[in-house]
Each structure stands twice: as structure tokens, then as C-alpha cells.
Specification:
- The protein has about 260 residues and is an alpha/beta fold.
- It is built from nine helices and seven strands, in the order βαααααβαβββαββαα.
- It has a five-stranded parallel sheet with strand order 3-2-1-6-7.
- The protein is elongated, with a radius of gyration of 20 Å.
- About 35% of the residues are buried.
Length: about 260
Amino acid sequence: MPRGMTIVMPLIVSDFHGTIANITEEAQNKAIGCKLLNDAVRKYDLIKIGKLLIAEYLTKRALSEYKKGKLPIEKVYAQFNSAIKGTPVMSIYSTVEEFAKQNSCKIDKNLLRILRTAKKDSAIAKILSSGYEKGILRILKHTEYSDLFSDHDIIANQLKLDDDEKAIGFTLDIYGKKKEIFEKEFIGSPVFRPEKTVYIGNDPEEDGPIAKLLPKGHFIASLIATDDEKQELAAKFNATVPESYEELEKCLRFYLKM
């Protein structure tokens, strides 16, 4: 190879919730909230119980308004983060671990199998998610694909802690910023090129704008996305919508030139 020439690697970036796993981010947050509430009931901590019930009500209402486009995501998480603030981190970690064990069966094993094959054929696989990084890793660890992604392969939100290892709250660094992060981390990288990159996702609002950074067809709708999501991604963003995993595999080989 001539001096100074950069090797361009085939790259597959995927969302997690609704793409790799048929799980919502809200489900994990609800599990954390229920665990905190159960702990407060067991300790007969009336102040904590009241705080959590109010936070649950306000979070549900804010989430409904967010889905209508009337509230930013920061408002939704403000109540939830307020409720978990001060919780010992191991209490949250244990809930995340239990949730991972119970929900690891909901991953799309066919997609992970295809990604593993692509990695063996020299492709790089990454996850870009607005979910919680540790939650994603723990779900994957309870599957036969536990070695497919390391924490360096996942760009997602974090749980901020204070000096006493107690929760401050979940970061919101990814929500509404996927396109900018994708451009900075991948399109702007010297080892990746749009013509050898694909993105697999399901959310028209969060994932769809990434299609504008890629050649036509290089945005691929998740096979476990809803029919409405697939139709919207195809209509608004010219997404490729494979009808089978065999077709998905062919698309990856064609677009990544593997």
C-alpha cells in the first residue's frame, strides 16, 4: 500500500431499541422506577413513595406531550432524573441487570448473526442509541452474541454519578442529535466513507435524518420495525426496506462492497 494511503473500512451502524432489540427505552426506565418504589414501600418511606408516585404521573404526562411534539425530551427526563437522584448506583445496576436477563430473549438474533458474519468479512459494527449504554451491554451479555460489541462500539447515554457513587441522572446527549453525532464520529472519520457505510434503524424522527448523510439506499429499515415506520422511512428518506434477512444480507454485501 502506498505511503499515506488510508484503508477505508466497511461500516455498519445500527440503532438498538426497535432495531436490534424489540424493547423500548421506556420499559427499562419503568423497571427502575418500580424497583425504587418497591424499595420505598418495603422501608415504609412515605416521603419517597410520594415523590416517586408524583414523578411517575408527571413523567407519563410529559412523555405523552413529547410524543405529540409539544415538549422536549429534557422535560420528560427531568422528573425521572429527579426521582432517581441520590439512589445508590448498585441499586440501579441490579435492576438493569435483572431487566437484561428478562428481556435478552427479545433481541433480533438474525440481525446479530448477520452483523457477526459481516465483521468476519472485515466490516466494523457500531451501535448509536439514545438508550442507556450499560443497559444495552447487559442485554447483549445475556445472549450468544455477548462478544459482538464492546463498550467502545456503543455510543449511547450514560448514568451520571456523584462522588459517593449515587445517581445524579441519565444524560441526554444522544436524543435529537443522532445525525450530528453520526456525522462527527463516522462521516468525519478518515477510515470511513459514506459509500461504504450503512445505517440500520427504525425511528423516522431520530434515525431518519441520518439518511441525508448517506448515498441513496444506504439507510436500511430494521426488519422488526413497524409497518408504519418502514413506510415512513421509505417515503421520506428513500430507505431500503428488505423483506427478509437474506435480502438484508445481500443489501449489506452490495452497499459495502464486501
